[in-house]
Amino acid sequence: MAHGYLQKFASDETKVCSAGVETHGLNPGAVATMAEDGIDISSHTSNHVDEYSDINFDLILTVCDNAKERCPVLPSSAKKVHFNFPDPAKFVGTEEEKKMEFRRVRNLIKEFCKDLLEQNP
Question: Staple 41 to which of 4, 22, 30, 64, CB 3.0 to 4.6 Å?
Answer without folding.
Answer: 4
